[in-house]
Amino acid sequence: MPDREVPERNPAVPKHVPESLEPSASPEPSASPEPSERLDLTEAGEWKGVSPKYVVVEIVGTIVNAVVVCGGASLLWLLLDQTWAMWVGILVLVISIINLVFEPRRVRAIGYLLRGDDLLFRRGILFQRFVAVPYGRMQLIDITRGPVARWLGLADLKFVTAAATAGVSIPGLAEGDAESLRDRLVELAESRRAGL
Amino acid sequence: MSEPVASVPAPLAVPRTDLTDGEWHRLHPATPLLRGGIFMVAIIGFIFANLRERLIDLFIGQENHGGDPIDEIYQRGATGWALLIIAGVLIVILVVFYLSWRTHTFRVNGEIVEVRSGLIFRSNRKARLDRVQGVNLARPLFPRLFGAARLEITVAGQDGNVQLAYLGSKLADDLRRDILHLASGLRQARQPADTPDVLAPTPGDDAAPAPLGDSAAPTIIGPPTAHSALGDFATARYNEFRAPDLDPEAAPPESVVRIPPGRLIGSVVLSGFTVFLLLAAIGLIVSVIAGSSGWVLVAVLPGLIGSVGYYFSRVTKTLRFSIAGTSDGVRIGFGLLSTSSQTLPPGRIHAIEVSQPILWRRFGWWQISINTASQASGRSSTTPTSSIILPVGSLADVAKVLELVLPGFETDTHRALVENGMLGGRRRDAGVADFYSNAPARAVWLRPFSWWRTGWAVSGNVALIRRGVLARDLILVPLARMQGVRISQGPVRRRLRLASADLLTVAGPVTASLRVIDVDEAVVLLKWMSTGAVRSALADTSHQWSRTEATPPTKGATE
């Protein structure tokens, strides 16, 4: 495992890592064998997705947003005769429609993974993002439910750390799942807690 | 009043003060006066302004002009009433001061520091000693003249500090020491061989613990009573004023970095602010020559004058800077008129940035700033709690400071790594090995100048990020304190097979982000960092105060 594959342009990464830091726990030694443009962590394990019903929450949110903005824009346009408002409204409408088309795929792209010592989270298709947060860094866990989500029996789980940016927020979990996941995470964090 | 504490750890060293006995104590009697220092000055100024003519008359002896409030009162024969009112106001002020002083009490025991204050709106603040992020000892100018100091025990969070304002100067020094010893008590109990001898009380010091019997009446903390005579008092003040803030016996002198005043002034002058100022001045001159009206001058001149004040405050604030390692962490002191000295216990630093603005390159100057969990940023509190732990220093100074703040990061390899991160780059490494894993050449599209310096490395328990070519940056993140890793990729970076990576730390001036990195390497980085974070947190010994086994299940709330 000491000689994992690094692209040959960067021959010196592992030089100064003492034994204690060798990531020997992770099972797979190699990065992706064939060059891929996408950021991918397929070898990390089995990703857990969020509830497919979460698409509805996103769609409702997008529609409400679009209706509010377009309504405001058309008011400006029709009553105050502001032509630029019409263009803004059309732009928002087009973006919202594109969003609606991609919504199911975006929801499918949300995933989380409970690894041995940390929580891995991924999100996004066009703008991808992977976050790994060790369980021991947990400060608190929030569960919130919006009106639509509550109607569908969904909940959002938020894993908060001391860093404002390192929070992981997993939306659209079934309520029972969210609560059991919270209990599991708290339990994991208790056994691995680190000081601040 | 003083509820018994469940488990006070055995005293490790004889405390220097009797304040850490868990009883309630009061602050310096002049506290209300000092806290309202500026306010009092304003009142006195107001009175003087109103009675100015009166005073001039008194000294010069001309006749009255009338219209003076005092004359008015005198002429109406209301002198008695006026005196009565003044006396009444004075008594009310005194009573309020007395009561606010009486109700402002604090206690320190083996586990907590607690402050109660307030007459009508009571407030109570409690900080756990095992969560202490730092202890600051601040001496603003006005209290300093009276030999008083403010002790702040900071814990994590935006406004997370417990203030003991004000204490006698010497007392505050000793109390800081006692608090730090109590906070590190666990460590000392665990590995007694590690504790150096500085804990032993100095002979001749009145270090004997005070009898705890009279718990009914909290002890009053005043200025040292030995200085009864005015001359003694003045001498003591002068000595305190002059003496450097560092405890000479607690700091190994060779690790202290000193900044020559010339370099300090030079560094302040050669800042981005000066460039801005010069541009503004050039613009001004051009506009005047071009024949614009004088209003531009009127609008800009006050700002120019104000900038002189900015330089002055920058210089006085960082003058007499000192940094030293003590047995309880790194101690940073600065300030000429208002002094402040921070103590950062080991393991409280979340990220370190060594940076060099382009104007400093010629002189080889560097600056070091840090992230801590208790950033008192943006608050209008008068404490100059700073995130800058080295305002300006040479390469050797940087090495010394890094040794202090990253214990165990001092082998030759580490030094080479740091130096490489500060000065090196991919292009240079024809003969010399570059220890960093650099961004590929195609990153030139996104980082046309700095791509060859953008790289990362992991060494021991520290992650290093090198970046920036105009303003050089080297960021060091102790993995044990890192909160998480994020790698992300947008459409542009996808086309270039690049990604960006962030090491997430607590908020502060340092952001450990790597904007361009090879895609495959980003995955490697995520793996290494996440594994390293877990491992070094488990093996973390610098965080002596954390209780790994006996932590009560109160998460989050106590932070």
UniProtKB/TrEMBL annotation, chain B:
Residues 101-177, 324-403, 451-528 form the YdbS-like PH domain. Pfam families: bPH_2 (PF03703). Residues 199-216 have a biased composition (Low complexity). Keywords: Membrane, Transmembrane, Transmembrane helix. Residues 187-216 are annotated as: Disordered. InterPro entries: UCP026631 (IPR014529), YdbS-like_PH (IPR005182). It comes from the Bacteria. The chain crosses the membrane at residues 33-51, 81-101, 268-289, 295-312. This is YdbS-like PH domain-containing protein. It comes from Cryobacterium gelidum.
